[in-house]
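Aim 2 progress update. The chain analyzed this quarter is reproduced below.
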Amino acid sequence: MNKKSCLNCGHSVSDEFCAHCGQKADTARITPHSLIKNDILGSIWHVEARFFQTLKDILFRPGRTAMDYISGKRIRYNNFISLLLILFGFNVLGLHFYEKFAPPETLADDFQIRDFFSKYSKTILFVIIPMLAVNAYFLFKRIKLNIAEHFIIGTVSLLGILIIFLLSDIASLIGLWKPVSKIFNIFDKIIFGLSILFPAVTYWNAFKNSYSKPGLLWRVLILYVLMGVESLTIIVALYTIF
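Predicted structure tokens:
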């Protein structure tokens, strides 16, 4: 087998990538053609393709995506924590544009909800995932996942909710145009309902082969009851303290 040295670290290379540092073995001289094709277009396509593939998998197979990631199939996905921050930023941006373009009477109708989200959005972001992880850890003991692995499933669940919220923001913005406002207001309500159901979809998709349907159903229902009680307690505490 023909071996050569890696131009980055000097180790012997006999495959497409250096086993020591990961650099591609084929590092020919940079030309205008290779600069455009590989460094510019190739990088953009690689990042965008993986980004949208990750979003698609989270939306349509959230539980399996989380379990694939836990089992070690990670190269195809963006880092979930980084993606969480990106989507959270997009949601804040969507809320900002909605407040900018919505008429005053519309803003007055949902002032309390928006005001609460603006004040406590970061708290909500960092509390939902641990709540899901801890509750699921005890409810789905048979799977033998540790708390950090349940944290990943909770992260994927919240990512799906943030994607749906982003779609809701887009629908709300389009709905400000009066000729289509009724249609998009209905669409917005449907999207909100899907966001409430998304954690159930995530856990059902992740564990449907490990439990009977009745067994999985009562566990998911208890998960929702626990999340509801804990969320209400946190909301009351936030209002009381601040």
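The longest helix spans residues 32-60. The longest strand covers residues 4-5. These observations will guide the mutagenesis experiments scheduled for the next reporting period.
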